[in-house]
Amino acid sequence: GVALANTTAQVVFITVNVRDDNGTVIQATSLSLPPLGHTSFNLTDRFPVTAQRRGTVEFQTATGGAAGVLGLRFNPAGAFSTIPALAK
Known about the structure:
By secondary structure, the protein is mostly beta strands. The protein is built from one helix and seven strands, in the order ββββαβββ. Strands 4-1-6-7 form a four-stranded antiparallel sheet. The chain has a three-stranded antiparallel sheet with strand order 3-2-5, with no helix packed on it. Strand 2 and strand 3 (25-33) form a beta hairpin. The radius of gyration is 13 Å and the shape is globular.
């Protein structure tokens, strides 16, 4: 799962690039979050191209934007841990 939060008092636009294991962009899209808004989703539901693949997902804000990202990994028993987000 992925959780995103807008940490500013303005709408933030986020560019999302899904890359395969070789670094090739296999899907690109954008989304927006309202001021101080947040959202969460299952990565494979929102980006089906990520199912059963290795790679990275980049979340980039436009200049002046700021967003927090948290990755979550769940196991079948319901336990979860965070996935580290790396700043570029």
